[in-house]
Specification:
The chain is of the alpha/beta class. It has 4 domains: about 120 residues, Rossmann fold (3-Layer(aba) Sandwich), CATH 3.40.50.2300; about 160 residues, P-loop containing nucleotide triphosphate hydrolases (Rossmann fold), CATH 3.40.50.300; about 70 residues, Helicase, Ruva Protein, domain 3, CATH 1.10.8; about 55 residues, Homeodomain-like (Arc Repressor Mutant, subunit A), CATH 1.10.10.60. Helix content is about 45%, strand content about 15%. It is built from 20 helices and 16 strands. The protein has a 5-stranded parallel β-sheet, sandwiched between helices. The radius of gyration is 28 Å and the shape is elongated. About 5% of the residues have low confidence.
């Protein structure tokens, strides 16, 4: 197998020599050029697996060379070498198509990681399919454009900001970018920025040392360390508090972190992807999101279309989701009637693909004879309306004064027992489990009879038992 070859362009002989020695120890062949003219000659004469170029050269800018390579050698990854602190230059180069960047003075550990990732990227096949376990399914123009963008961006290391409504599949897009890229064998770590308590955020992101604060009984790895070599996906990044935004910006720019309580910084190698359903540019205008962090994260923006803008994909999505639900339930997949499919086509889907899955999961448990009809979907006829949800019933034993007070504050006074649970959902699941177990015990676990007494279908009972971990089959 032939050795990989790298082209290095820098007008400083010391830098060229340092890089050449380092790459030689990595069993890589190297050609060196001192300017753009000589670099173009090499490119026309030789095939390379990676190009490393300085941004300031005697006969032009490194950015010009990046654009030349993009036009003439689109599969050749090119990384730029920038002066320390020239983050704007690095971002500009990645917008033009650069694979990644490294700052002077060159950290050899960072250089080696960059080179390995870039060469892996150059070896990726020209045409690959998106991961099969994905909701990025459809034949609409929006999905075809999205698929092409994912395949192209998977080769780069540039940060990507994925925009789109809730439930449209932003995390699945991020996961696909990871799985199609050179980091596919490394971890993909997704974190919901709005779900981490503010006081624990720094420790969660960067880790901490034992004894660094009350309760820190042992060293803990942060998200950056857990994703080492892979991809770190920040979902709902707009929910980060401003003080944490500053720390995240520094970690991304310097490619290093400092665990809480540590005196030393750790070099990190992760690709950053982020998403939010909010308009980040508007969050910047309102002062809730730092402009410099937005500029750093929004190197490339990828928009995910809402489901209502790609209605022609609904039949394919519906078939895929019903097959998936059926496999999980170990039951045959039901068919969808013409009326049900038309109802879905006319619906606005404010919750997008996630809502479609929930609708089908509910209809799966309600339908008879393995056919989902329009009524099983439980959607209003008005396509602009939200789905109908049953209103919770108030406890009839509560006194009038308390009820009137609740009406004023829009609050429902659930039983005191609810307070013993982490959330209302946990409480309701426990209540449902009690009801089902009681019904089954009364008929000696005859599921058919229990379903009849509960007034639900056998399929619905089977689904609920499996969801609650009560299905012994």
């Amino acid at each position: 197998m032939s050795k990989k070859r790298v082209l290095v362009i820098d007008d400083e002989p010391d830098i060229r020599e340092l890089v050449e020695i380092t790459l030689g120890r990595m069993q890589l062949d190297t050609d060196c050029a001192e300017n753009i003219t000589r670099a173009k000659q090499f490119l026309m004469q030789q095939t390379y697996d990676l190009c490393l170029t300085d941004m300031h050269l005697p006969d032009g800018k490194g950015l010009d060379l990046v654009e030349f390579i993009q036009q003439n050698f689109p599969r050749l990854p090119v990384a730029v070498i920038t002066a320390h602190g020239s983050i704007d230059t690095a971002i500009e180069s990645m917008k033009a198509g650069a694979f990644d960047f490294i700052s002077k003075p060159v950290d050899l550990n960072v250089l080696r990681k960059l080179v390995n990732t870039a060469i892996q990227s150059s070896q990726l096949p020209t045409s690959v399919k998106l991961p099969t376990e994905s909701f990025i399914i459809g034949q609409s123009k929006a999905i075809q454009d999205l698929t092409r963008s994912i395949q192209k961006l998977a080769r780069s290391q540039a940060p990507i900001y994925i925009s789109g409504e809730s439930g449209s599949g932003k995390e699945l897009v991020a996961r696909s970018i990871h799985e199609l890229g050179p980091r596919a064998e490394k971890p993909f770590i997704a974190v919901n920025c709005g779900a981490i308590p503010r006081e624990l955020m720094e420790s969660e992101f960067f880790g901490h040392k034992k004894g660094s604060f009350t309760g820190a009984h042992q060293d803990k790895l942060g998200l950056f360390q857990a994703a080492e070599g892979g991809t770190l996906f920040f979902d709902e990044v707009a929910d980060l508090p401003l003080d944490m935004q500053v720390k995240l910006l520094r970690a991304i720019q310097e490619k290093s972190i400092r665990p809480v309580g540590s005196a030393e910084e750790l070099v990190t190698d992760v690709r950053i992807l982020c998403a939010t359903h909010k308009a980040l540019d508007n969050e910047v205008k309102e002062g809730r999101f730092r402009q410099d962090l937005f500029y750093r994260l929004n190197v490339i923006q990828l928009s995910v279309a809402p489901l209502r803008q790609r209605r022609e994909d609904i039949p394919l999505l519906t078939h895929y989701l019903l097959e998936k639900i059926a496999r999980e339930m170990q039951l045959p997949a039901p068919k969808l009637s013409v009326a049900a499919l038309q109802t879905l086509h006319d619906y606005q889907f404010p919750g997008n693909v996630r809502e479609l899955e929930n609708i089908l999961e509910r209809a799966f448990t309600l339908c008879e004879n393995d056919v989902i009809d329009a009524g099983d979907l439980q959607l209003q006829s008005d396509p602009n309306a939200l789905p109908i949800f049953a209103k919770p019933e108030l406890d009839s034993s509560r006194n009038t004064a308390q009820t009137n007070n609740d009406n004023k504050t829009n609050r429902i006074d659930y039983p005191a027992r609810c307070a013993e649970y982490p959330s209302l959902d946990d409480y309701l699941l426990d209540v449902e489990k009690e009801i089902l177990c009681d019904a089954l015990e009364k008929v000696r676990w005859n599921k058919t009879l229990a379903a009849k007494r509960l007034g639900i279908t056998f399929r619905s009972l089977r689904y609920r038992l499996q969801k609650l971990g009560l299905d012994d089959e």
